[in-house]
Amino acid sequence: MNQQQNKSRAFGFMLVILGASFWGIGGTVAQKLFQYERIEVGWLVSSRLLFSGILLIAIYKITHRHQSIFVMWRTKKDAFRQILFSLLGMLAVQYTYMMSIALGNSAVATLLQYLAPLFIIGFYIIRGHSKLTMQDSIAVTLTLAGTTLLLTNGSLSTLSVPMMSIVWGVLSGLSVAFYTLYAVPLLQQFHSLLVVGWAMLIGGTTMSIFYQPWHIDLSNWTFATTAYFFFIILFGTMLAFWFYIASLHYLTPKETSLLGSLEPLMAVITSVVWLHIPFGGFQIMGTLLILIMILYLTVFQKKSIGL
Question: Where are the domains of the chain?
């Protein structure tokens, strides 16, 4: 692998690490809004998607003045693919994850979301695109073991949540897998800003049918509430999803989904520092396993697999 390819892969690793970190921190902030500010899940999802989508499309237009923002709407095939990605990918990831948090807790929701690498590897094996390798097995084992220890501190009794929280969490994992895989052909044709921006705008518009962003009582909002809300829009949504999806230009979907396990790591760190939640020995072990997995992926490079 030449120096240019190494630089591209390093840039891809940086993007997915930042994206997963922002998403993890944003989840902690969102849980604070649900618990202490009584913000409704549907309203937050529709608002964050609409605002973030508009911002991303605006950024694209500013940086590509002579390019059309409607390029993916010129053929029925591309338009259908973008709509499907927006609803079953972007919107589904957002809503299922937030519902799992609201009905249970962020630890269980995040753990179940990180079944996504298993779904992606399973998809490749079923489709005959690859065989289960020793590297895949080691990476998945490290991911699941590290995430489980990180979020449960070695006690599965902490996973005692309502069944619907588990259902939404599993659906979140499936949505992340679909989101990661289905984005690849779109990114081969269109700029990541447009793909993510339109997905957010379409998802937010769809949610607005049921939860209008303009129907909100701001009288009880404090400065902190406003700051949390805009942090979720800018970092926890816009940059998190943009960086994650852009990393697929440089990494395989398997690598991107596995490196995304930094999300629970950041969620735990912010919970400890900000919410003063104790950090146990098993959670330290989980953190180390995730860091080992990241180093493992960095050293043992996988071959790219097309869809």
Answer: 8-65+75-299
Contact between 152 and 62 under an 8 Å Cβ cutoff? The reply is: no
pTM of the full structure: 0.80
pLDDT digits (tens, 9 = 90+) for 239-295: 988 888 888 888 887 778 777 777 777 877 887 788 676 677 887 888 788 778 766
